[in-house]
Amino acid sequence: MIDHQMVSEALAEQLLHEYRTGASFFFSSPERTILAKGVFAAVPEEDGSGLEHLSQRAAAVLRDAEQSGRKRPIIVGAVPFDNAKPAQLTVPDEVWCAGPLVFEQSVQKHSQQGMAYDIQPVPEPEAYIRGVERGLAGIAAGDYSKIVLSRSLRLTSPEKIDIGRLLQNLAQHNTNGYTFAVDLPERAKEESHSARTLIGASPELLVSRTGFRVSANPLAGSRPRSDDPVEDQRRADELLASAKDRHEHAVVVQAVAAALKPFCRKLNVPAEPSLISTETMWHLSTEINGELTDLSISSLELAAALHPTPAVCGTPTDKARAAIKEIEPFDRGFFTGMVGWCDSVGDGEWVVTIRCAEAEDHALRLFAGAGIVAGSRPEDELAETSAKFRTMLLAMGLNNE
């Protein structure tokens, strides 16, 4: 008798090992594991339209794929933080799907030990603190009530980055989240071309759709984990009791619920947040569930309506986004965008692109952000970003920034 669960688990791990940089899309969630290869068609860009018509363009490409004989084709890829920038969405040539990844406790977590990195913070920590102070001044002036400010680390090595190994490490370290690797457009480098990969392990589900069922899991309010179990529990309890963090979380939940409500006949929004944890962080979490009014509403359409949430941008969105462009000294690219998939019937999963990096040859650019509200302390927000970097750093065999 075949144990189908064991077969599915083995296939999921096989898909992870068969990922190849520059030729694949990989996505794992608590529900499934997807490996896609090649490009059958790309969702075309449309200058100046932002996300307004993205789901319609994607649906048209999926219809064309079906008419070409593809059975239930899917769109895979990523959407950047800035709605004015082009998305990277394609219909793959080949797709394999299995159940969720399951790792035995005894599985060895490999790292790229021995690799030396030069680490350059952008901005420097002192400059980030000054940026947070500018954000707080904007809040005090009434320009916005919340702003999310991020920083990056650029890591370079004499050796080429092993993206496949890094992806496996991320998946093994973050078994309850969403692990992904997405090919990005090549960036011309003098006479050669350099492949880029968006890679990460996000804890945050932006939205998923299965038939009429819709789910979202906004996270806001965080504390770093501690290796000391007593201290770790103290931090968790403090986060759950924190009025500041609960207010920050409530703002995000209200925004997500308001964006989903027009699409749903039923929407269940818990009155109180709960706690979830990753290997490196505690988060306040709210699981929102709803029932669609119409099956013509795809997961990508829902994701576009939600993006960006106050958890990665701020509120009001337009004013926070404008201030982010003034304060942050770099382009976020796909960081704090969304990554995932949507099939031809509209089902799909989209996660918030956090705990991630852009990898290119011998370099990685890591990102981390923190939500700034009235009462935030710049030094605490700096510490929070340092803790969030650890998801990627641990997968690289590095314990500290």
TrEMBL record:
Superkingdom per UniProt: Bacteria
Entry's SUPFAM superfamilies?
ADC synthase
GO molecular function, a single term:
isochorismate synthase activity
The EC designation for this entry is 5.4.4.2
Ranges for domain Chorismate-utilising enzyme C-terminal come to 125-388
Q: Which Pfam families match?
A: Chorismate_bind
Annotated keywords: Isomerase
Q: Which Gene3D superfamilies match?
A: Anthranilate synthase
Family to which this protein belongs: Belongs to the isochorismate synthase family.
Name of this protein? isochorismate synthase
Q: Which organism is it from?
A: Bacillus sonorensis L12
